[in-house]
Amino acid sequence: MSIIFYHVFLLLYRTGVRLISPWNRKAKLWMEGRKGLFERMRAELAAAGQAGPVIWMHCASLGEFEQGRPVLEELRRRSPGCRIVLSFFSPSGYTTRKDYKGADHIFYLPLDSPGNARQFVDLVKPDIVLWVKYDYWYYFLAELKKRGIPTLLISGIFREDQPFFKWYGRLHRYMLECFTHLFVQTDMSRLLLRRLRLTENVSVSGDTRFDRVIEIAEGGEPLPLIEGFCAGRPVIVAGSTWEEDEEELDHFANTHPDLRFIVAPHEISEARLQEVERLFRHSIRYSVLARGGAVPSRGQSAWPEANVLIIDNIGMLSRLYRYATITYIGGGFGDDGVHNVLEAAVYSKPVVFGPVIEKYIEAVELTECGGGLIIDSALEAEKVFNRLLQNAEELKETGEASGRYVHSKKGATLKIVSYIYEKRLLTS
After folding, report:
1. Which of 93, 206, 296, 307 could anchor a disulfide with 62, C-beta 3.0 to 4.6 Å?
2. Residue 151: helix, strand or coil by DSSP?
3. What is the pLDDT of residues 229-246, one digit of tens each?
4. Residue 300 pLDDT grade (very low, low, confident, very high; cuts 50, 70, 90)
5. What are phi and psi of 184, to 5 degrees?
6. Which domains does the chain have, with CATH numbers?
């Protein structure tokens, strides 16, 4: 991609967001969140003063934040006097984590341009920049390189079909050259970068998400309402679902009133929630459940008519998998592929998902080690669920394979943080 085409892309992006913002909630939030951004940044950062080194972490959205979070929190633990600036490109990340207590300042990243990049970096004055996984923006990365600010890619993942490895990808390749060091998830990513003559500044660290999900699993507090709903029954927790996923599950849920299902849609707009309610005939929303009064004692249920609980909030899902007998991860029937399988696997539960997994090495590896089970139809989903529920030994072995896989991959956070302190990158 040439710089001319890049500018055309940026123009089309901004124009497209503006055109759809009147009726698209995310686009509206994207536009509104950036109004007066630099004025707000200037006032907030000026009031904070300049004490301590400044760490800037950029995340595309919520998933990337959870990926970078272990590194951020370990740096805070080791250097409590540092200041942390967190930026998001997507409204779903910003709106969910704008009150995150682990950062001193949380902002939207403005759309890429030479002026926006200069102004943003001038205001933040970072001593080190942590860029999580992807969301590459040319002018921001070029500005950081020009100023000699250490910039690390965290948990990068590369595939041969990406622009970096195509004849038209010179601009993308230059963006990779802007990083001081690239921490990648896999040996395959390292080998692909070697083709671009990126060798000395590339390390295979693994994926920091493994550290994050282990931390969540070890520190999670009980959820009494969820325990009450489950009432000691076998439970299938379906997380990050889309309509395609729910259509694979609804018949099984509707015909097995003795089981409990917890469904957490990937999007929780009112329209989506109503779609889920139409599919699952005996359902109740979590918000309704929470207003329903006393929690029943274990083994009893105050809601015998509902066997499906619809989660209509964000932030609870990673703790719900603890209550599952079997887990199901959505996205595997859509073009973008399966969502985060690690949040479920860490609890040593069988993990079931649709067939679109090729972009997600953790889903591929989880399947290869016996902890992940791929289904390609509602009929196959029902066969897998019945088989696991009727075979305690297979249920146990599949779940244990999931847990072993996750725990075998921990340690990426320590590798990255150790590099930062060994290279003395957090000095100001």
Report:
1. 93
2. strand
3. 999 999 999 999 999 999
4. very low
5. -110, 160
6. 3-206+411-422 (3.40.50.11720), 223-408 (3.40.50.2000)
